[in-house]
Amino acid sequence: MLTQSFAEAVAEAEKIIAAAPHVRTDQDLAEGYDYLAGSIQASLHLAWAYQRDFPYFVQSTGPYTKLGLDNPDTLYLHAYLRDDAEYVVTGQRGTTTDLSFQVLNGDYSPVQVPDSLTAFDDRSLQISPDGSFELRLGPRKPADRPGSGAPASYVTLGPGSAMLAVREVYSDWANERRGTLRIQRADKIGAAPPPPDEALLAKRYRVAGKILLSRLRTFLAFPEWFYLTEPVNTLTPPRRTPGGLATQFSSAGHFDLSPDQAMIVTVPAADRDVAPYQGIQLGSQWYVSLDYINHQTSLTADQARADPDGMLRFVITERDPGVANWLELTGRNRGYVQLRWQRLTRDLTEADGPLAEVVQFARLPELLPYHDSSQISTHEYRARIAARQAAVANRMVG
For residue 108, what pLDDT is reported? Predict the structure, then answer.
């Protein structure tokens, strides 16, 4: 049976979900099965996108196919490469805050993060006044060949280059617009791939099964690598984000809060010349973002309300505290929190980072220095949610 291998992988994946060490409640398990559904969709999608000769950009993660504590502010795309071929990437720069590129030597696995062979953002590209650009990637620059000149935007693919990852990052969801992006293998432009036969389809189902199981095992292991070694209800100083992203720093932690507790996260509002993008998000025990469409579980510097002293103060709690920078727990008491700064022009220090304090919910009015000016009405908060729903919808189809 052609799909047997994938069916067996799905059955094994369900066992992985049910046996996950953090599962304590029926809600934990229900969230796991929802996560499994998105992972099944993504695995099939990615297996069919494994086209190194006729590549195209596929969404690596999204609202319904989440993995790896995905950033609600980011569109994640990737395409597969050969290290011995030349590729042409063309696009139109949108108005998003950041657009970055990264060449990896493989995919994430349960035992390691793939090496980043090179990483850069659109400041390294020559972008025309109309926003259009062209980037070429290959094993050898044309300038290395006698009698030829290299294009302005050229990346040499090192041995083992296997994937081009692209991140387009929003800070102002309502007003920033995504660009366009296309990739082609240079010597295949105008050609067509052969039609799939039964053997190829059987292989793709096997690959989809392997992707599914690796995906689940990998990102259940990730928290141990980067989070759970830290004391609970604390945040690390800003540090370079693992994985070779040259201009991104992050601060991470995991929380465990009772219903009558809140966590106040205080962090300086970054100078936009230093960090054009600054954001905070919450994640579930499945190491994925919480519902950021219908709940305020993340905020960028543009979305957050800064206090008069230049600090951003976020309140993480299940109960509505009536403040603008509430981050909703959406029915859980355990999970992850991460802050990111991107497109940096300097390294961050501990002074740029957050402080986390767990307090009694009832004491928030006396402990928040600018509690009166941070308040928001139920009507205003609902308008915020409506704006999030519209912005994500526009982002996905725009």
Answer: 53
Q: Report which residue type is found at 245.
A: L
pLDDT of res. 107: 59
Q: Phi, psi at residue 166, to the nearest 5°?
A: -130, 135
Let me know: does 134 contact 150? Beta carbons within 8 Å: no
Token couple for 331: 């029915």
Contact status, residue 360 vs residue 368, Cβ threshold 8 Å: no
- Residue 336 burial by CB count (10 A; 0-12/13-18/19+): exposed, middle or buried? buried
| Beta-bridge partners for 256 | 334
* Secondary structure in 3-state letters for 3-55: CHHHHHHHHHHHHHHHCCCCCCCHHHHHHHHHHHHHHHHHHHHHHHCCCCCCC
Between the alpha carbon of residue 16 and those of residues 6, 40, 259, 356, 366, the distances in Å are: 15, 13, 29, 33, 45
What is the spatial distance between Cα 32 and Cα 338, in angstroms, rounded to a whole number?
Answer: 21
pTM (two decimals): 0.93
In one-letter notation, the amino acid at residue 92 is Q
Contacts of residue 129, defined as CB under 8 A and 6 or more positions apart, other chains included, come to: none
